[in-house]
Design a protein that fits this description.
- With about 210 residues, this protein is of the alpha/beta class.
- Helix content is about 40%, strand content about 20%.
- The chain has nine helices and seven strands.
- A seven-stranded mixed β-sheet has the order 4-3-2-1-5-6-7, sandwiched between helices.
- The radius of gyration is 16 Å and the shape is globular.
């Protein structure tokens, strides 16, 4: 068995889910600035995530669902995943974003499973709190090791694809480390770089 792990935001999806939420609250500028600094590795991921989610307090949960059902997927994402599966890969998503988005996209894009974070909802509105599988800088690497052990997949048979600083930890456990339209901090640790917004380019590397 072989394994390919994708980041979601700005990798399989063209944009940052939290920025789409923020635009509904009128705090898009503030949130996107924090997102950008976090993806460049200039802010601690946990602190940046919890700070951004606090700014979403009061957003209607129905709006969250609507946004997640209308996200723009990356050009070629569906085809790349189908191509990987045809080559015998298990395709997994690790997202520092949210299960509302990754869970919905799973059936559309065709990946096998997603690990992400959960926005806390009370009385139909976001409380500004978040928890889940991908809260820290080290989370993706930690989960990748656990998944490799569970599936019996070696580092040699593992691909990681991402764009930001919080993808570095999973790069450490993958043979092919693909920086996709990525920040410089991640490109430095990649052994393959795709600078065009076309995920089908990934299939050319395998």
């Amino acid at each position: 068995m072989k394994l390919c792990v994708f980041d979601f935001d700005s990798t399989l999806m063209d944009g940052e889910t939290i920025d789409f939420f923020a635009s509904k609250m009128g705090v898009e500028k503030e949130v996107s600035q924090i997102t950008e600094l976090a993806m460049q590795g200039k802010l601690d991921f946990f602190e940046s995530l919890t700070t951004r989610v606090k700014l979403l307090k009061g957003l209607d949960a129905n709006v969250v669902e609507e946004v997640c059902k209308s996200l723009p997927y990356m050009n070629g994402a569906k085809e790349a995943i189908a191509g990987l599966k045809a080559k015998g890969y298990k395709v997994v998503v690790f997202s520092g974003g949210f299960r509302n988005a990754t869970g919905y996209a799973k059936d559309i894009l065709g990946y096998d499973i997603d690990f992400s974070n959960v926005l806390h909802v009370k009385d139909g509105k976001l409380t500004g709190l978040v928890g889940g599988d991908m809260m820290f800088d080290f989370s993706k690497g930690d989960m990748m090791q656990r998944l490799q052990k569970f599936l019996g997949v070696s580092k040699a048979d593992t691909i990681a694809v991402g764009d930001g600083a919080n993808d570095r930890s999973m790069f450490a456990h993958a043979n092919l480390k693909v920086a996709f339209c990525a920040k410089d901090i991640l490109k430095k640790e990649a052994n393959a770089i795709i600078d065009e917004k076309d995920m089908r380019k990934l299939l050319e590397l395998i």
